[in-house]
YkgJ family cysteine cluster protein
Amino acid sequence: MAPLTKPGFDFCFDPRACETCNSLCCRGEPGNIWATRQEVQAICDLLKINLIDGIERYFRRVGNRFSIREIVLDDDCPCVFLLPEKGCSIYGARPSQCRTFPFWKYFKTRVNELCDECPGVTRLP
Ligand code: SF4
Ligand code: SF4
């Protein structure tokens, strides 16, 4: 499969890199993994957990938004849904922020930063 491109982005992305990179984009520095109310519901449905309990267990509130919790380790901050060696445990219901990586508006002007983060990305000539 040819690497993916998107109009307006000066890089391409080869998803085959995901097979060996140990989910670098789901870990690392702490941050926000935004999920809409509908996405929170979809995750809870997938996990067969009621919404109230699911929010309590897997999300934190940032203002009036939801962000997926992370596990704070000494030198890493993986998403709570990241399973060691196995990847995302809610892959089918992962939020848009995860589905659209690495084609984020933020990275349009920060390709070097993205290349450091994701081994599947190559800057276009
Ligand atoms: S960092 Fe890049 S190559 Fe690694 S899992 Fe994420 S998208 Fe795939
Ligand atoms: S929800 Fe899944 S794809 Fe998104 S950061 Fe967490 S483990 Fe990664």
Remarks:
- DSSP finds four helices and seven strands in the chain.
- The beta strands are 11-13, 34-35, 59-62, 65-68, 82-83, 87-88, 121-123.
